[in-house]
Amino acid sequence: MTLTSDNKATNTQELITATIDGIQMQVPKGTLIIRAAEKMGTFVPRFCDHPSLAPVAACRMCLVEIEGMPKPQPSCAIPLTEGMVVKTQMTSKVAEDAQAGVMEFLLINHPLDCPVCDKGGECPLQNQAMTAGRTESRFEIEKRTFPKPLELSTEILLDRERCVECARCTRFSEEIAGDPFIELLERGAKQQVGIATDEPFNSYFSGNTVQICPVGALTSSAYRFRSRPFDLVSVKTTCEHCAAGCSLRTDYRRETVMRRLAWEDPEVNEDWNCDKGRFAFGYLKTNRLTQPKVRNLDGNQIDALWPDAVDIAAAGLANAQGKVAVLLGGRLTLEDAYAYSKFARVALGTNNIDFRNRDHSEEEQQFLGSAVAGNHNSVTYKELENAQNVILVSFEPEEESPIIFLRLRKAMQKGNLKVTAIAPYLSKGLEKLNAEVVATKPGEEGKVLSGIDIVENSIILIGERAAAIPGLLSVALEVSNKTQSKISWIPRRAGERGALEAGALPALLPGARPVADASARSEVAKVWGVSNSKIPSEPGLDHSQIIKAAINGELKALIIAGLDVLDAPDPKLFSEAINAVDFVITIGVQENSLTRYANVSLPVAPVTEKSGTFINWEGRPRPFGKAIGSTNALTDARVLSMIAESMDLDFGLQIIEDLRMELSELGIWNGSKLEKPQFESKEIVDFKNDNVILSTWHQLLDEGAMQVGEEHLAGTQKSSVAYLSEETAKQNNLTTGDLVTVLNTRGSITLPLEIIEMVNKVIWIPFNSKDSKVKQSLGAKEGDIMLIEKGKV
Amino acid sequence: MGLTPVLTAHWDEPKSFDIENYQKHAGYVALTNSLKMTPDEVIGVVKDSGLRGRGGAGFPTGLKWSFVPQNDGKPHYLVVNADESEPGACKDIPLMLANPHSLVEGVAIAAYAIRANHAFIYIRGEVPHAIRRVMNAVEQAYAQGLLGKNIKNSGFDLDVVVHTGAGAYICGEETALLDSLEGRRGQPRLKPPFPAVAGLYASPTVVNNAETLASVPSIILNGADWFKSMGTEKSPGFKLFAVSGHVKRPGIYEAALGTPMSELLDYAGGMKQGRDLKFWIPGGSSVPMLTPEHIDIPMTYEDLAAAGTMLGTGTPMMFDKTTSVVKAVSRWLEFYKHESCGKCTPCREGTYWITGVLEKFEHGVGKEHELELINDICGQIAGRSFCALGDAAATPFPGAMKYFASEFEEATRKPVDVSFPPERTKIFSTVGVM
Fold first, then answer.
1. pLDDT of residue B233
2. B325-425 architecture in CATH?
3. Which pLDDT tens digit goes with each residue over B264-295?
4. What is the pLDDT at residue A9?
C-alpha cells in the first residue's frame, strides 16, 4: 500500500550510477536509496517512510549499510549519490541485524493483539515482523499500556498501545491536509499521538491517516471490528460524491460495502481522498427502492411487477403527447445521462431536458456549450500542480472540490503557486492555500475579475455557483481570452460534466453539438437510426422553464431522475410543478420526498451495482465496473430501454457495451459550438441598512442526501455559524455570540453569529448544513438580498 | 602541571559577575580588538588556536564558524548552548554565575565573526539563578553599548536574547535546541541540512557551547600561540574541569588539557574519607567509565579516546568503593529513559527495556542470560538511533560490564542494597566509615 508507483519518480533527467547489493544501476539524481532498491526489486522494510511525505528517518526500520559510513544509515532519507555502494538486508549482516533489532524494539510494547485488530491481515508491522522479527520474544517485563481507544474525533479512534510512533498521521495532517489537529505529545516511551482539549481531529481528510497507519493504531469508528481484510473483496471504483473523480478501492463482504479506501492514482487523487468519499456510503443501504411502484385508481401507490410498471410508464408518456420534460440530477453516470438525452429526443420528441438541479441560467448553458463541453484541452490536476497563478472565482476548493484543494496546496508548498480568490472572505481553506483574497460581494465577482491584474497563462477555476451571478460567466470567458489563461469549470456533483457531454441540456445534443445546428442533428440522428426531423430543431426548456411551464399547465408529464426536490433551485416551485402535471415518473436509487408524488416509481442501481463512467472536472473519463453483482438492480439506461420498447421503439442501450459503442460512434463534433455568452452584469441596487447580500456555499460535510446514515462522519461536520463583518454587525447592533436571523419573504434561518474580517454588507451562511438549509428555508441563491435581525433564542 | 586560571581567575573577587569587575581585568578589550579586525581574521585566530568545542563532541570551533556561507543574503544566527543537563556535568552553570561577561563577550566576538546580528543564549530552565546573572550581564553590556546598535562605532549591530528551556535533556542536542527555540517540540532534526546551512529559522546558524564561547575573548586578547602554549597539540588550551562525586573538595578546577586525572583529584583533596576510588567517568554519564588504573591518563580528547572513552564535557565524576555499579548504571539509564524524546525506535524502546531489566538486577532477581540481553539491546541502540542521545544511553552498561561483570552476576542473587548499603555511599554519611 505504501510502495511507490513509477509515476512518482523524480523528474530530474540527470542520472547517477550507484550500486545496491552488487547490482549497478542508474537512477535520477536525488532518488532515495529506499526507492532505488524498490525499483530493482528489493523491499527495504519501513514504517515512517511514505512516498508522499517528507522523510523523517524516525522509525529506523530501513537501516542499510553504505560503504564508507561507520554506522548503518536510514535508506528512506539518503539519496543515492554517484558511486555509492549500498548493501541492504539482502547482502549485509549489518543491515539485517540493524533491522532485526529495530523490529524487536517495535514489538516489545506492541500488544500483539492481531487476532482482534482491524489491521491484522493487511498490516505492515505484521508482515514485516514475519521477515525481520524473531520467532520468540525476549521481552519478559511489563508492557506499556494505555486506556483505549482514544477518540480523536467521532470518526477516528486511536489505540496508543499499537502505535509505533512513525508520525505518518501527524505528518500527513500537517504537510498534506494542512490540518495539524493531531500532534505527538509527551516524550520517550510515553510519546503518543493526541489532540488538544476540545479540538477534535475534524479534518476533511482524516480518514487518510487510518489508511496510511502502518499498524492498527488508527481505526475508523465506522469500520472498527466490522470485518477482517481477508474476508473482503476489493474492487477498483470511482467516487460518486464529487467531480474530483477519485479512484477508490471498495471493499465488500456478502454484497455489503464494508469500507472504502483511496486507490492511488498519480494523475488524479494521488494517494488520498476526502472523508466524504471514504466514509459516506451508508446511503447505499438507506431507504433503498427495490420494487417498482405504480399509483392505482384509488390514488394509492402499490408495488408492481416490472413489465406492468414499464407499460404504465410508457402509456402515461404516450398520453402526454409531447408535452413532456425530463429533469435530471447531477449524479448520473455518463452512460445513464446519455440514455436520458437520447430518450428525450427519440422517445419523447423533446429537447426539454436539463441535468442542472441547482441554480442555473441560460448564460451558463451557453458557457458550458461553448467553452466546456467537448473541450479536450481542459486544465488537469498536473497543470494545477505546475501552475504559477490560479484564480478562484465562486469556488471554495476545500469545501467544493477537496482533491483540487490538496493539489493546489501541494503546488503552493512547492513554492511556485500563487492563489488569488475572488471571495467574500479568507476562509480557513483558502488560508491553507496561502491565498490572497480580493474581498468581493456576491454579484460583483465579474467586475472584480475584469479589474484585477491577471498574469498571462494563469488558470481560472470557476465554480458552479457562478451561474447564480448574471454576467459573471461571460466576463470570465472574456478575461480568460484576454489573458490567454485557461478556464476550468468546477461542478460539484460527479455526474454534471458527463451529463453535459451527453447532451442532457435543452440546447445541446451529445458531444457539444448544438441542437439548433442542422448538421449536428443529422450526425446524431444517423447514429440513433432515426430521421433528422425526429430531433426538434428548437432548443427546449431548461430546468426553471420546465418548472414554470408545468405550473402553467403547459406540460402534462415529467420524468424526474436521480434528484431530490430538496436540492432544487426552488423546492417550493418544484413541488407545485409536480402537483400541476398529470403524470410523474420518478427514477432513482432511494426513496425521497418525490417518490410519493410518482405515478410510476422505478428503482435503479447505485454506483456499486452497475458499470459506468463519471467524467471528472478535468474532462477525464473515470470508468468503473460493477462491484456488487447479485442484486440485479437495473441501470437507468436499461429502464429507459424497457420503456422505449413498450412504446414500440428500437432504442438499443440495453447493455453498457451498446452505450459505449454508441458514444464512441458519435465521436468528436468538429462543427461550431454554442455562441459564447454575452450577458450583462447586474448592478447591485441600493439597499437599506438592514439589507445584506447573501453569500453561501455547500460545506463538504453537511446534510447532503448521500451522507445519510453516517453518524460518525456527521460528527466531524463544521458547526453552523453565520459570518458578518464587524462594520455590518455593528450597523445591525449585532455582536459575536448573538444569534442572527436571515430572512426573506419565504422564510428565515437563525444561526450563531461570528464576526470575521470580510467584505461589508454580506452575510455568509452554510448552504445545506444543520439549521441552515438555504433552499428549503429561503428558496434563495447566492447574491440575493436578505434582511437580517437579531435572532431570538 | 598546575592550574591555569583564565575563566576562573577572578571568581573569588566580590561581585565577580559584575561588568565593572570584568572590565577591571581587561573585560571587553577583546571585543574592541575584534571589531578592528575583519570577521575572517577573527575566525583565523580562533582556527589557529585550535580551540575545540567544550560541549562534548570537541569539534574545532574556528572550523565550525568558517562553514557559515558568506554573502548569502540570509540572516545568520549564533546560538549558545547553555542547556547543561548531562548527569555529572556542572561547569557552564557555575561559569554563567561567576563570570557571565566572559560568555557575553565571547558571544559578541563570535557573532561578529560569523556575521550574525542576532544571538540567542539558550539556558537550561531549571537554573533561574544563572539565567538572572546572564540576563543581567546582557543588560549591562547593552547599557555600555557593547551590545545593540553600532557597537563601539564599528557599524556592527548585535541583539542578544536569553531564552530558557523547559526542562528537556534532548534540547541540549543542537538541532532539538533549535526546534525548541523556534517554539516547537524539542526533537532532533534530520541532517543534512546542517545548522551551518539551514539552522535557526532555516538560516545559517552556529551553535556553540557556553564554555567554548567564554574561552574566545582570552584567545583574541592573548593570541593563538598563548592558547596553544597550554595543553597538547590536538587538545590545546585550558578547560574547566568540574570534579564531583566522592571527593573531599568537589568543584571546578581550571587546568590545561592534558592534566592527568590524578592531579585533578589532588586539587579536589583526594577521595573522601580516605576511601579507595572504584571507578570514574571523565565527562558526564554519556562516556564510558574508567577505573583507578586509568587515573594518570592525560585529560585530552585523544588520550581518553585511546583508553576507550571520551573527554565529553570534561566533568569527572569519582565513585568510591561503597558505590554499586549496578545501581549507578541503572540510575543513568533511568535518566536516559526519562529524557528520551521518543522520536526514534531504538532510544525510545531500548531505554524502556533496559531499565525494566536493570531493575530486576537491583532487586537481586536478574537472570544471568539477561546480562547478555542488555548487552544486545545496547548494541541494537548504539549507532542506530537518530541522534547521539541513543548512543549515550547505550554507553554506561557495556562500559560497566567491561570492568565490573562480577558485580552484575552478584546481582542475580543479592539485592544491590544488601551488597552496597545505600547509607554508606551517601556523600555526607559517616555511617560505617571504613
1. 96
2. Up-down Bundle (1.20)
3. 999 999 999 889 999 999 999 999 999 999 99
4. 46
Q: What is the pLDDT of residue B253?
A: 97
Question: What is the architecture, at CATH level 2, of domain A365-493?
Answer: 3-Layer(aba) Sandwich (3.40)
Which of A98, A109, A188 lies nearest to residue B337, judging by beta carbons? A188
Show Cβ contacts of residue B315 under 8 Å, excluding neighbours closer than 6 positions: B86, B88, B89, B90, B91, B241, B242, B243, B244, B283, B284
Whether the CB of B371 is below 8 Å from some CB of chain A: the reply is no
Interface of B with A in 300-339 (CB under 8 A): 337-339
Q: What residues in chain A have their Cβ under 8 A from chain B's Cβ atoms?
A: 55-61, 63, 70-72, 77, 98, 101-102, 104-106, 108-109, 138-139, 141-142, 144, 164-165, 183-184, 186-191
| Chain A residues with CB-CB distance to B386 below 8 A | 57-58, 60
Are the beta carbons of B348 and A189 separated by less than 8 Å? yes
Q: Flag whether pLDDT at A1 surpasses 70.
A: no
CATH architecture label of B238-320: Roll (3.10)
Phi, psi of A763 (to 5 degrees): -115, 135
Is B191 exposed, middle or buried (CB count within 10 Å of its CB: 0-12, 13-18, 19+)? middle
- Upstream peptide bond of B192 is cis (omega within 30 degrees of 0): yes
- The model's pLDDT over B96-152, given as tens digits with 9 standing for 90+, comes to 999 999 999 999 999 999 999 999 999 999 999 999 999 999 999 999 999 999 999
Residues in chain B: 434
Taking only the tens place, the pLDDT of each residue in A673-709 is: 999 999 999 877 767 777 999 999 999 999 999 999 9
Is A102 close to B348, i.e. CB distance below 8 A?
Answer: no
Q: Name the amino acid, one letter, at B322.
A: T
Kindly determine whether residue A104 and residue B380, on different chains, have CB atoms separated by under 8 Å: yes
Mutate to test the interface with B, among A187, A190, A193, A215 (most CBs of B within 10 A): A187
Q: What is the predicted pLDDT for the residue at A338?
A: 97
> Nine-digit cell at A584?
410523474
ipTM of the complex: 0.95
For strands A691-697 and A621-624, give the pairing: unpaired
Architecture of domain A140-285: 2-Layer Sandwich (3.30)
Q: Do A189 and B340 touch (CB under 8 A)?
A: yes
The domain A293-355+497-666 is placed in CATH, from the list 3.40.50.740, 3.30.300.30, 3.30.70.260, 3.60.20.30, at 3.40.50.740
- Mutate which: B180, B187, B191, B348, vs A, most A CBs within 10 A: B348
CA distance B426 to B246: 9
Q: How far apart are CA B96 and CA A494, in angstroms?
A: 67
Say if B350 is an interface residue toward chain A (CB within 8 Å).
Answer: yes
Q: Is A147 helix (H, G, I), strand (E, B) or coil?
A: coil
Closest alpha carbon to A561 in A596, A590, A582 = A590
Which member of B190, B343, B384 has the closest CB to residue A77? B190
At A242-295, the pLDDT tens digits run 999 999 999 999 989 999 999 999 999 999 999 999 999 999 989 999 999 999
The model carries a pTM of: 0.95
* A56–B345 C-beta distance less than 8 A: no
Question: Which fold would CATH assign to domain A691-790?
Answer: Barwin-like endoglucanases (2.40.40)
Q: Is the CB of B357 inside 8 Å of chain A's CB atoms?
A: yes
Residue A3 pLDDT exceeds 60:
no
Task: Please tell me the distance in Å from A174's CA to the nearest CA on chain B.
Answer: 14
- Which positions in chain B touch A190 (Cβ < 8 Å)? 342
Residue with cell 588539557: B257
Contact criterion met (CB < 8 Å) for B346 and A102:
yes
Chain B, nearest residue to A190 by Cα: B342
Is A187 in contact with B340 (Cβ distance < 8 A)?
yes
Helix, strand or coil for residue B47? helix
pLDDT digits (tens, 9 = 90+) for A645-665: 999 998 988 888 999 999 999
Q: How confident is the model at residue B9 (pLDDT cuts 50, 70, 90)?
A: very high
